[in-house]
């Protein structure tokens, strides 16, 4: 398959947010981060099917130029079609990329801070009662590493049995274009969601979670003054609620670990045990352990900060 240079360049510019490294899918479906320059030739290999790449969702300035909503099953997929239909009714184009069970809905935008891209996406999901779906970018800003990634479309999905290519479809279920090459040409110059519309939505919805937790206390909450301050802190707020202000946890309380370059949702919170844990070896524990690691503070500093944040003033 010959791919015209202008299609290749346009396609690359549509999806790729950084060029200093790239994720390549392995046979088991996982991605390996290649610490090398991403070239047009590599994207061409992807489109030809010899390798399979992912696309990072944020650039190094924490901006996104696309939003990808991820449906895991048929029910969620019908939900995403509802969003696509709503945009179509407003004369705006979004792109449906079904996979075996669910699929991706892609929205292309003028570059937006990751935080705003996510606010916009979460608003759309909430409008359609789809709050549990995953949003890419997964991070408002990158604390460490390169952040979340999505399989670059129109390549071969290595883990599918047999490995195969998923193409874009219309709302009626037809192919977006009859040939892969024509689909590539469309995605090389996709239609964007109107910037005015994005602005109007963002202006109308509240800011997302603050960077710092501002917990509220129920009147009458008992803080046992016989306990050491560290224990009072642990009793003041659940690990789920505290950590959830920093990490986007899904329905099963899993998320991307903020302490390493995570693509596998290695981070989890146990509500029963009231602790957090990273399966990739970043440790785990209480609110205090989390805060120490996040802010690079020692135990004493962390307890002092958290007492100020979480405990009612003593008087
Ligand atoms: Zn970790």
Question: Gist?
Answer:
This protein has helices at residues 5-15, 40-48, 74-89, 114-127, 180-188, 195-204, 229-236, 239-243, 287-295, 299-310; strands at 22-25, 31-34, 54-56, 63-71, 95-98, 103-113, 134-136, 149-151, 156-157, 164-165, 254-255, 267-270, 275-278, 283-285. It is an alpha+beta fold and 315 residues long. The strands form 5 sheets. Strands 5-6-4-7 form a 4-stranded antiparallel beta sheet. It has a 4-stranded antiparallel beta sheet with strand order 11-12-13-14. Strands 1-2 form a two-stranded antiparallel ribbon.
Q: Could you explain how this protein is built, in words?
A:
The strands form five sheets. Strands 5-6-4-7 form a four-stranded antiparallel beta sheet. Strands 11-12-13-14 form a four-stranded antiparallel beta sheet. Strands 1-2 form a two-stranded antiparallel ribbon. A hairpin with a 4-residue loop joins β12 (267-270) and β13 (275-278). Helix content is 33%, strand content 18%. It has ten helices and 14 strands. It has two domains: 5-203, HP0184-like (DNA primase, PRIM domain, Alpha-Beta Complex), CATH 3.90.920.20; 229-310, DNA Primase, Chain A. It has helices spanning 5-15, 40-48, 74-89, 114-127, 180-188, 195-204, 229-236, 239-243, 287-295, 299-310, and strands at 22-25, 31-34, 54-56, 63-71, 95-98, 103-113, 134-136, 149-151, 156-157, 164-165, 254-255, 267-270, 275-278, 283-285. The protein has 315 residues and is α+β, with helices and mostly antiparallel strands. It is elongated. α7 packs across α10 (299-310). Zinc ion (ZN) binds next to loops.
């Amino acid at each position: 398959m010959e791919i015209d240079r202008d299609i290749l360049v346009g396609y690359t510019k549509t999806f790729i947010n950084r060029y200093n490294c790239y994720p390549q899918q392995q046979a088991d479906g996982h991605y390996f981060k290649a610490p090398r320059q991403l070239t047009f030739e590599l994207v061409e290999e992807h489109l030809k099917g010899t390798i399979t790449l992912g696309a990072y969702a944020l650039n190094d300035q924490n901006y996104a130029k696309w939003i990808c909503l991820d449906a895991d099953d048929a029910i969620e997929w019908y939900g995403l079609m509802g969003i696509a239909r709503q945009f179509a009714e407003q004369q705006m184009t979004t792109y449906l990329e079904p996979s075996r069970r669910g699929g991706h809905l892609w929205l292309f935008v003028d570059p937006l801070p990751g935080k705003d891209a996510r606010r916009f996406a979460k608003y759309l999901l909430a409008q359609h009662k789809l709050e549990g779906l995953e949003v890419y970018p997964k991070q408002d800003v990158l604390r460490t590493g390169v952040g979340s990634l999505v399989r670059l479309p129109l390549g071969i999905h290595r883990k599918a049995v047999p490995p195969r290519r998923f193409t874009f479809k219309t709302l009626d279920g037809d192919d977006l274009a009859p040939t892969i090459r024509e689909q590539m040409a469309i995605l090389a110059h996709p239609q964007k969601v109107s910037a005015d519309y994005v602005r109007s939505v963002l202006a109308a919805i509240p800011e997302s979670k603050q960077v710092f937790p501002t917990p509220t206390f129920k009147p009458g909450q008992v803080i046992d003054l016989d306990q050491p301050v560290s224990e009072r802190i642990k009793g003041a707020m659940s690990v789920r609620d505290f950590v959830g202000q920093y990490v986007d946890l899904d329905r099963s309380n899993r998320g991307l670990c903020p302490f390493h370059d995570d693509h596998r949702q290695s981070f989890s919170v146990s509500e029963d045990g009231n602790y957090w844990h990273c399966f990739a070896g970043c440790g785990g524990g209480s609110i205090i352990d989390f805060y120490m690691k996040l802010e690079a503070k020692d135990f004493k500093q962390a307890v002092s900060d958290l007492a100020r944040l979480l405990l009612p003033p003593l008087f």
